[in-house]
Amino acid sequence: MMFKLKVYDTATSSYKTVDLNFWEWLKLKLHGYVYWKSVNNLPFYIVCCEKHGYFTDYPSGWDEEFWCPFCLRELKKKLKEEGWIRDEGFSCR
Ligand SMILES: [Zn+2]
What we know:
By secondary structure, the chain is an alpha+beta fold. It contains 2 helices and 5 strands. Strands 2-1-5-4-3 form a 5-stranded mixed β-sheet. The mean pLDDT is 90.
């Protein structure tokens, strides 16, 4: 039995259909993520965002977290609106 998922692939910035077997699907449901495959020597996972659905990502950052690209986009927009980040650049020195 295979489960077909519509997944946003962050490596190619496009949606694709991914087939999972029952155990992969179950892990995804239990943990919110499941190992997918190796892309450019990085371990890519299929991750579920409760707001935006499934996407692919590899663990990043010091705490090895997954970041939904759509949530990041929304966060960036919000930070821009609130004046925390600027389009025109910023001097760090
Ligand atoms: Zn999201």
